[in-house]
Write a structure and sequence with these properties.
It is a single chain. By secondary structure, this protein is α/β, with parallel strands linked by helices. The protein has a domain at about 80-105 and about 220-400: Rossmann fold (3-Layer(aba) Sandwich). It has 18 helices and 14 strands. The strands form 3 sheets. The chain has a 6-stranded mixed β-sheet with strand order 4-5-13-10-11-12, with helices on both faces. α3 (about 70-80) crosses α4 (about 105-125) and α4 (about 105-125) crosses α9 (about 215-235). The longest helix is centred in the N-terminal third of the chain and has 19 residues, at about 105-125. The two termini are about 35 Å apart.
């Protein structure tokens, strides 16, 4: 399969080219030239485990670039944990995506990408420098996924003071090939620095660079796996399926739309955002106007200019078509904290702030409709946001062992201004 740029439909590259470059040379995001039909998976899907599903989908995208045994190895070494569906109450279900090593949904994409890139490095004897901007969970997942992978350096840019304490520890306490840059700015600033690097021909002539953000198509493909897996675990496949996705940079939602295009019977997607409501405003007004990032308690979704909207707009081609499949609701911090407390009190289930936004978006759309399967994505373990949640629920949260090990480690980061020349000089002095 070939991949084209959202800025140029005639441009075609291989999966490996798209993987390594991250961003197209014209500044566009890569899209598959066709989305494979996997509707045949639906019949009897309840008998398939997540690795079975993952291999079938991955093979349809990667088979031109990797031999079958390599694809099997990639799946085996990256999709090594489950994603259970848990019923909260009535027809409201959560897809728990926080059972990986960093307790966040981004473990799926980051580990898959790490294993594919490791194969490329092994087969081509190259050194690759991964640039990744993070608003919280991406950085830790990528750091863990790529840790100690020979031939790959990972440079993580995160906004100073705008990630949770645990998130910061997760992305700043590794050594060897992981380098954390603490930027005086917002996530959008970090993302802009990464994008500018990919358009810097002088830098690219001296360094082999790639990206591990959801701008990289290799991050999106594995995220389609768990949508199919979720469907396999639902009790009633006859009811229409409505899926609410906590949305920041919109990579997770884009992957869900890909899954729908592959044949997964999803009636409607809900883009549940915090106060960063660029997309909600776009769906209501028809005007796409990015805004300066607004800090919230669901910090991993603090994105004022979500990159993957380019893919969604490219896929649908017009706003009316988008609105048939996608609704969006913006959720305040106040309502987020309130629903966390209410769900714990009434149903003994603890949500993190991002998943809480997802639930509220779903409830706003359903409005007491009980004749559908309502599914929202649980994107992170609540313990990662204990400093936010504990004062609201007035009790302490049990910290999983993975986090205990990280909390006591020493932070190691490089403080940097929001300045591209400073960023470029750092890369050239460190990795050239």
């Amino acid at each position: 399969m070939k991949f084209y740029s959202t800025n140029n439909n005639s441009l075609r590259v291989t999966f490996i080219d798209a993987l390594l470059s991250g961003l197209s040379k014209d500044g566009g995001l890569y899209m598959p030239e066709n989305i494979p039909d996997h509707s045949n998976l639906i019949k009897g899907i309840e008998n398939l485990d997540i690795k079975d599903i993952s291999f079938v989908i991955a093979n349809s995208f990667l088979s031109n670039d990797f031999i079958t045994s390599d694809i099997e190895d990639i799946i085996h070494n990256s999709i090594s944990f489950d994603a259970p569906v848990v019923n909260i109450y009535d027809n409201i279900n959560i897809l728990e995506l926080f059972h990986g090593p960093t307790l966040a949904f981004k473990d799926f994409g980051a580990r898959f990408m790490a294993r594919t890139m490791e194969k490329v490095v092994q087969n081509n004897d190259k050194e690759i420098n991964i640039l990744v901007a993070t608003s919280g969970d991406t950085g830790s997942a990528v750091a863990n996924g790529f840790y100690d992978v020979e031939g790959i350096n990972v440079i993580i840019l995160y906004p100073s003071g705008k990630v949770s304490n645990i998130q910061e520890k997760q992305l700043t306490t590794l050594d060897k090939n992981i380098f954390a840059l603490e930027v005086n700015g917002t996530f959008d600033d970090c993302q802009a620095l990464v994008k500018k690097a990919f358009l810097d021909n002088n830098l690219k002539s001296k360094l082999e660079i790639s990206s591990a953000n959801s701008i990289n198509i290799a991050r999106l493909i594995p995220q389609t796996f768990y949508y199919f897996n979720a469907f396999s675990k639902l009790n009633n496949h006859k009811l229409p399926l409505v899926v609410s996705v906590p949305s920041g940079n919109f990579g997770n939602l884009t992957a869900g739309i890909f899954a729908k295009c592959m044949g997964l019977p999803i009636q409607m997607f809900i883009a549940s955002t915090n106060s960063n409501k660029t997309v909600s405003n776009y769906l209501n007004t028809g005007e796409y106007r990015p805004h300066k990032t607004i800090p919230t308690i669901s910090n991993a979704m603090d994105v004022g200019d979500p990159s993957n909207m380019k893919r969604i707009i490219n896929l649908y081609n017009n706003l009316d078509a988008i609105k048939k499949d996608l609704k969006s609701f913006s959720i305040s911090d106040k309502d987020t904290l309130k629903i966390i407390s209410n769900i714990l009190d009434k149903h003994s289930y603890l949500l993190d702030p991002h998943s809480a936004v997802g639930l509220l978006g779903l409830l706003k759309y359903l409005n007491n409709d009980s004749i559908v399967n309502g599914l929202f994505l649980g994107t992170a373990h609540p313990a990662k946001f204990a400093d936010i949640i504990e004062p609201e629920i007035n009790k302490s949260i049990d910290i999983p062992n993975q986090l205990h090990k990280t909390i006591n480690k020493k932070k190691n980061s490089t403080l940097m201004n929001n300045n591209y020349n400073e960023f470029s000089d750092y890369l050239l002095s460190k990795f050239q």
